[in-house]
Amino acid sequence: MLAMHSATQDRTRQILEDLEAVRENLLALSDDIWLSIDHNDQKALEEGVQFKRTYNEKTRGFDQLASELSAMIQQYTSVRLESEERSGEGDRERNERIVQELNREEPHSIDEDFTYRRPHGFILEGQGTTGITTWRRLFELVCQQLLRRTPDRFRALPDNADFVSSRGHRGFSRNSEELRSASEIGDGIFAEINLSANGLRDTLRRLLATFEIPAADLRLFLREDRDAARNRDGA
Predict the structure, then answer these.
(1) DSSP, res 119
(2) pTM of the entire structure?
(3) CB contact set of 17 (below 8 Å; sequence gap of 6+)
(4) pLDDT tens digit string along 193-232?
(5) Is the dihedral of CA 109, 70, 171, 197 positive or negative?
(6) What mean pLDDT comes out for the span 146-159?
(7) Where are any strands of DSSP class E within the chain?
(8) What is the tens place of the pLDDT at every residue in 42-97?
(9) Distance, CA of 118 to CA of 197 (rounded, Å)
(10) Are 86 and 130 in contact (CB under 8 A)?
């Protein structure tokens, strides 16, 4: 373990967060470009498909390299991206504090566009979690909460056709190699996380429907609102 001054730790954490932001922004840019193509123009569509294939291949390579770099830096420096996460699970008083803290900000619904925006917390069925740095991590934590809530239903997700795309891409699997970028949620279930913020949002919407949770029971909180609230308070 490397002994680091506080300022160096802060810089290292910022670099790790910037690395994650670049990964998510590359996925968002891919969505933007695809939506900007005139799909009724055959030539433009063919060129767009070729671009997407090449772009996706390059971003997958970058994603793998970024993951390896992040893991290596975190292991050597002991600066953890997840170190600031706080959850109200299992502690009523702590949960009340986290929820109260989050509710000072503007809540966002699962129906919004989250392109180029970053999360830092959520409240699901009254349980708050904060200190999150990426959409991928938010997605993982929501999935873990759903697994604890209704284990049997979550373990059945790999068999649920609602989480298989028209091209056969799975959102959940018991085999990590079936996914492009797999995150192990628990109980041997892996989730696809190689998705943009809006792609993860869409999967979350389907999860809420599957678990019969009203969309209003998931509130999302963004960094820009947290920072604005801190500036207002003079923090």
Answers:
(1) E
(2) 0.88
(3) 81, 133
(4) 989 999 999 999 999 999 999 999 999 999 887 766 666 6
(5) positive
(6) 97
(7) 86-87, 119-124, 127-130, 172-173, 182-186, 189-192, 218-222
(8) 998 899 889 989 998 898 889 889 989 999 999 999 988 888 999 999 999 999 99
(9) 8
(10) yes
Say if residues 30 and 1 touch (Cβ distance below 8 Å). Answer: no
Pairing assessment for the beta strands 182-186 and 127-130 based on DSSP bridges: unpaired
Using the structure block, give the residue that is written with the tokens 């292991």.
75
Token representation of residue 134: 């990426």
Residue 63 CA to residue 179 CA, distance in Å, equals: 14
Coil, helix or strand at residue 86? strand
Would you give the DSSP letter of residue 142? H
Within 10 angstroms of residue 114's Cβ, the number of other Cβ atoms is 20
**Percentage of residues of the chain with pLDDT beyond 90:** 64
Sign of CA dihedral 184, 190, 194, 200: negative
Environment class of 214 (CB within 10 Å of its CB; exposed 0-12, middle 13-18, buried 19+): exposed
- DSSP class of residue 84? T
**What are 22-25's contacts with CB under 8 Å, separation 24+?**
22/66, 23/62, 23/63, 23/66, 23/134, 24/118, 24/134, 24/135, 24/136, 24/196, 24/197, 25/116
Non-local CB neighbours of 190 within 8 Å, separated by 6+ positions: 172, 173, 174, 175, 176, 179, 182, 183, 184
**Tokens 């900000």 — which residue?**
105
Q: Which helix (H) or strand (E) holds 124?
A: strand 119-124
Cβ atoms of 120 and 130 closer than 8 Å: yes
Residue carrying structure tokens 């998931």? 218
